[in-house]
Structure formats: structure tokens, C-alpha cells
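Side project, low priority. Logging it here so it doesn't get lost.
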Amino acid sequence: MITLDIFADPTCPWCYLAKAQLDRALEARPGHPFLISWQPFQLNPTLPPEGMDRGAWLRARFGAQADQADLPVLEAARTAGVALNMPIIARMPNTLNAHRLLHWAGIEGAQTAVMSGLLRAYWRDGQDIGQTDILVKIAAEAGLEPGMIRRLLATDADAQTIRSRAAHARERGIVSVPTFILDNTHVITGAQPARLWMQILDEIAAT
């Protein structure tokens, strides 16, 4: 197996598009050798724990250009045939708890299912993935024990682990997501098209 570490944040639209494209490639190459590991990276680590209104966040970050900020990703999603439901996304959540959930899912071998649930909940359904009830529901749908996840979320278990791992990623030079590290050697950034991943898989298969 070949490790594919993916540094991502579920509130990053490019991460949503990148996963959709990677999924297409993996479906087209079902015998792929990738062992996927989702790594924590908070785009907005200074957000308050309860998050904030997404419109206010856009205005604070982009100022007068806030109304135009989503246009590039919307165009990329349209071109890629990926559904984004921007109008119903009301909140910009703090994703520390989402990353804690991904960490626990990794222990149970359910990381990709949880990341799929997080991305779908936020970008398709407009849900606040900073809310405990939403995270517990996503965990349950991925096969995790909901009562245990609820109890863990009520504590600060592994919060410092997530902060430390995210800080280490930045120290390694990862400044944007999605960032893919293939076999701990090759770095691929951005929402690459499915055809690139299929080309990489074909090259691996030919060696």
C-alpha cells in the first residue's frame, strides 16, 4: 500500500471539490494502492468555538470583495459537475471538534466516511458542523458509537493533539489546503482533476 496523506479542512470548498475528483479516480481504479489518511489543518483556528455568521466572516476576510469571493469555486464546481449549495450555508464553524472526530474515526478505520459526511453536511446540506448533534449524527452514519462520540466531544480530549499536528503541518511548509503527500515524498496541491489521479495510479501500476 502507498500512503496518501491529505491535509484538509471540511469548511474549505476546494477540499470538497478535491475529494470529489479523487473519489472519481478511485472509483475508476478500484484496485488502487492508496492508504488514505486525513490530516488536520484548520483554515480558521482563531474562530470562536461557536463559529460565526458566514456572511460576516466573508466581509471580515474579503471586505468589499466579499460578494465575489465564492465565484471562483462556484465556477470550478460547475465545470467539475460537483453540487455546491452556497445559499443555505449560514455559519462558518470552528472545525476543531470536526478534526477531533476525524482523529477518533481514524482509530476505527472510518476516517474517509466521516470526512465524506462532514463535507456533505456542510457544502450540500448547509449544516453547522461545529454543532455536537451534527457531529454525532455524522459519526453514527459512519459506524461510530454515537454515545461515545458525544461523551468525548463534551471534553477537551485530543484537542491539543489536533492543534499540535496542525501547527506541525504549517512548520513543514503546508500553508493551504488541500495538500496531498504521496508516499511521504511527493507533494500535490489543490483540487486536481480526476484524470491526474488516474494518471498517477496508472503510472504506479506500471512500475
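Brief comment: The chain has a mean pLDDT of 97.
Revisit when time allows.
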